[in-house]
Amino acid sequence: MPRKGMRSLCFHTKTPSFAVSPSHLSTPRRSFSESRIEMIIETADSMIMRWNPDSSTYASVTSLFYEDKREAAQFLKCVKDLQKAMHLLASENSTDHRLVRAQTLMQTAMKRLQKEFYQILSMNRAHLDPESVSTRSSRASTISSSDGYDDEDEIQITGDSIVEVENVSAAVIADLKSIAECMISCGYTKECIKVYKIIRKSIIDEGIYKLGVERLSSSKVNKLSWEVLELKIKNWLEAMKIAMRTLFTGERILCDAVFAVSDSIRESCFTEISREGATLLFNFPGIVAKRKRSSPERMFLSLDMYTSISEHWPEIEEIFSFESCSAVRSQALASFTQLTVSVRHMLAEFESTILKDSSKTLAPGGGLHPLTKYAMEYIVLLADYSNVIADIIADWPPPKKSSLPESHFDSSHSEDSPESPLVLRFAWLILVLLCKLDGKAQHYKDLSVAYLFLANNIQHVASKVRTSNLVCILGDDWVTKHEAKVRQFAGKYESLAWAPVVEMLTEKRTAAITAEEVKDMFKIFNPSFEEAYRKQTSCVIPDPKLRDEVKVSISRKLTSPYRELYEKHRRVRVFVKYTPEDIENYLSDLFSGTILAGDSPSSSHRRRERT
Question: Which of 302, 416, 464, 587 has the fewest Cβ atoms within 10 Å of its own Cβ atom?
Fold first, then answer.
């Protein structure tokens, strides 16, 4: 930066006020002799003028604190002694010519210290930038523990570099602190903190900018496409981590260290430096939460933002603990509250989406309905945020049962059931889905397929619950109860779909029948089996476990009695079209979706032979 610009920004003459707070000063002893005062002024004159940039080319291009730490300490001591002498002279004779000389020296010294303060802050940004130091230390730590670095010398060099960075940072902070204490005690507080605020605020603002956090209005957010807004939300989530872990934390630590001498100055500096950037950061989630057209599918990023604020809340309260930072805390809390409202609204919208689904398209073969897959995928994802959702709905009124048929409620649970709001909410969402599926089952003309539809879809629901975090919320008993319903509906399907064939075999197996009756039985069985098989060729059972269970159950009811009759009446096998093995093979092909709808056993057999 050009020297002229730096001078105009930071340095100007000032007539100091000596009404300095006693907490910063020690009253000079009256025992100071005239000669002692003269010696202090002369010593100060020699030291201060030697580093006067206006009278020395060397002093104008050299940093006192960088060039000679010992002389820098002597310079500060001379200034403090000079101040004590000035207070003594002012208390005894305010018109003393030595006081005028001392004031001139003090102004020159403050000008020098202000210059040093500025230079240290400007030249050591890398050592005072909390984000850079944290990133470098973390990277070095990762390298030192990596398997790719087996060289002990390399590890030692890396460790030494970390120590060097920390030592430099500590030394820089110590210099800033000593200058700040000296200038504040001498009545030049404004000049000191002006420089500090300008430089440090620029670092915070630059950090926020580099993190990609930008000022957005509600109108602009509403105009953004979801794809663009999604990228901005994900960027904000990363920015929040870095800002809280390094940027604001580091700035608070630095401010507390440099201005440890005064609580009020620490508060004033940190607040002015961080307020704008922090408010900008914490405002973003609230703006997004108020966005129109927020569909339920977009809830999860809102939950991520809610989680981020919740997890960082202790740090927010600690870092921005000053009373003057209350606006920052309020902004974070406002966004937190707006996200709560937004998530509740989207949960209600999700429930409404299920209830309002008016699709009358039947799931082919009694298979899974698209609504079942969509809703359960959504609810499973919600369960991953169970702790967050528990907080959001803690004081949200529970759903009203009157909106669903009474027949769908378990009588063992009363209105005063002890379940938590979280359990009730998730159980309710699934109940809404099951009620909707019950209604859709009624559109099937074949009642057996309707039962298979319910068995398939409830099985999908129960399976998703058992294999996700939902089981931790709803419990094993909930899963067991609904798996029992699956078996119940699967059993009803079997009874309706295969009852005529099964009943015929059961009756003939237990009765004493003639050879002629056996012939008639096989003649009737063949078309009956083919008709039942043809109707079931379109049916599907997506879940492998349920599919095998249903096949085994049908085979046990059908194949076993058929085999018994087949073996018992060998003489009439001329009338038998299917062997027991044929029956087993045909049944094994069912429910996998590999048979053409309406196929007969014979056509299915021919196609299997060709393949």
Answer: 416
